[in-house]
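Protocol step 4 of 6: structure prediction from sequence.
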Amino acid sequence: MATGLDKYADMKPSWDYPVIIESHINGVRSKEMNPNTPTSYDEIAEDAIRCWEAGAGAIHAHNTSFDLMGEDAYVDYMRTWEKVLEKHPDITWYPTTCNNLRLTGDENGLQHVPYLVKNANVRIACVDTGLTLFATHQDADGYLSGPEFGFNYERVASQIRMLREHGSPMVFGIYEPGHLRHAMHYVNKGLSTPGSMWDFYLIGDYGLTAMEPIGTNGVKPSLESLYYYLWMIEEAQVTHPWYISIWGQGALDDTGILRRAIELGGHIKTGLELFYDPDRNPTNLELLQQAQEIAREVGRPIATQDEARALYNIA
């Protein structure tokens, strides 16, 4: 039986823009997960500079504590980014949100962003449009545990309102198909900003932060999952570029998915925030170079940093 996804399986390689490859360098990963994970201020700065100089279209980074809020989070970010900006004042980078479990009242998880927009050349911000269960452990009887992450309708609305006021492109983090439907509401109402982008999370057996195969969220890393998301955004009234992020893949060979995304006009987010395989410990630079090499094999040009800024609609 034919389905709406068949056309993507049959589609010939085609693109209208060079491929942007971002480096997402740390997240909440630890050196226990991979000894190459940058965790200190100097290590985060060094990896950001290294990947930028190797051609990353943008850098995404966390500070040293997801629990810091507002100005405290900003100050912690700057202990890294003063060093980076001194060397590359034009670098394109953006932070994460704050720990949703610490939010109170009308806080939305992006209170640090206006400080970084004003003082640290940040022009992009994340919007995670929904609530997600992060399975991290299971007990001896197989029962799962882990935190809840994400933002409810009110906080997402507050984030979007803030970013519209700043004219900041929005990275719609799509952990689940339902998140895409939530984000689509704002896109189709004309409330997204120029330069915004879809970020499709394809989530492997190790989930988002686990160190063992575990029951997790999201759609699996597969061509079918990619095609499903592409089918969903056919309803979008505003065209935004799309990216894929492959998380916790373990031994899964994800190169075929990366290749197909590049062939179909998508862009790639890579790095140690996403990657986990207990038997392999690459660096951020190696993961960036792997994606760059796949793009060269496909024959699609790799976007320069100026071209990436143009697609993000930032000066």
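Step 5 (inspection) to follow. The chain has a mean pLDDT of 96.
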